[in-house]
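Handout, page 2. Input:
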Amino acid sequence: MSFTEYIKPKYLSDLHRVMAEYEARVTVIAGGTNLIPEMRNGEKSPELLIDISDMAELSFIRENNGSIAIGAATTIAEMAASPVLLDNSPMLASAAKQLGNPLTRNRATVGGNLANASPCADTAPPLLALDASVEILSPGGKTRQVPLSKFFHGYKFTDLVKGEILTGITFPKPHDSTKGSHTKIGLRNAASICVASIAVALDMDGKTCRKARVAAGSVAPIPIRARRVEKLLEGKEINAALLEECMAVVKEEISPISDIRGSLEYRSYVTAMILKRNIKRALKQEI
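Output:
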């Protein structure tokens, strides 16, 4: 690795000052589970690393006025064990628990998982299904909110401009009538990279779906919302025939590739199957 300057602010006010001073030179690091291997391989050579891993102001999970807020420096392990998430969004806690191995989960952060913009980011599908937004901090100290569905622009490409950092994630606290489920398919249990994943959140009125959110990972250049499937579900009673239609439509919405972990055909098939499985699991009923 080439020589890189390193600064580790402790408070948000220090982060504002450093960002204002260095602006475009800044590369933010927290867990470093993606960045450090890329630096070792020579893929990236940042001029200045800003380490936010010790910033308590960016490490939290809390419920506030009907919303759930997560600091960007919150580790994946903290998310997996969080009583707030286990009570309000268990599919997000479950997705966190399936990310990598214990060593990775104790280092990796939710901000890094999203900002890295990998199509197989484990936390992205459940957060998309939860209608999450991200908070972005600019070098001038101003913040802006961006819906997560508009944050990913392309492979490894997000709404962040040079000098900006992701500081937090928020999403509305799900209603009691909202049923959710998440499934990740990997080649092995330990440290597996996602081959395909689906997260669903269904707001139900009896047997009728009032609102649907369906998100998929590892089957397009970015984590995506399956909007056609959502429209298909909304306003209808969910039955076996509707599920079969959803399976056909989701195959048209995704754009998987073939790689060492799985073929295009396999990803297409398994995505449709786990969509059906997750809807049934969320509703806890035979369809």
